[in-house]
Amino acid sequence: EDVPSQTFDNKDYFCGKETFPVYESIFTEEGETIRKIAIEIEKPPQIEIHVWTIRKGILHHFYVEKLSKREFEELPYFKLITRTTLSQWKIFSEGEAQISQMCESRVCRTELEDLVKVLYLEKSEKGHC
């Protein structure tokens, strides 16, 4: 049963924690997939974009870039996929660092997919606040 979400100052809260929008962009070209996961942070106001370049299932290149909201709004292909808390984003970032080392020499499709799932807040957790 869904609990109505609380809204303060047009922000979403999850178990009393502020949530931030997460965007995704997936672009495939010549056997290479570029997957970008972005979070919109308010202080300082910026977008942090994590870029993965995947060739034949192997993570070839990974880096992070930061943009202003205005620069981000000009980028095509991004769609809102969820909202997450900063603590979940930290888990995502730490897992990403481990995966980037682990997946330099082997296929890691499922690991990358599972990592993105960390960002989705489970509805069942609402009862465990």
Automatic annotation (TrEMBL):
Subcellular location(s) of the protein: Secreted
GO CC annotation: extracellular space
GO biological process, alphabetically ordered: cell differentiation; negative regulation of BMP signaling pathway
Main location (coarse class): secreted
Domain Chordin-like protein 1/2 C-terminal: 10-129
Protein name as annotated: CRDL1 protein
Taxonomy of the source species: Eukaryota, Metazoa, Chordata, Craniata, Vertebrata
GO MF, one example: BMP binding
Top-level lineage group: Eukaryota
Presence of keyword Magnesium: no
Any single Pfam family the record assigns to this protein: CHRDL_1_2_C
InterPro entries reported in the protein's UniProt record: CHRDL1/2 (IPR045717), CHRDL_1/2_C (IPR045716)
Recorded name of the encoding gene: Chrdl1
Keyword annotations from UniProtKB, A to Z: Developmental protein, Glycoprotein, Repeat, Secreted, Signal
UniProt entry tagged with the keyword Nucleotide-binding: no
Positions in coiled-coil regions: none
Organism: Eulacestoma nigropectus (wattled ploughbill)
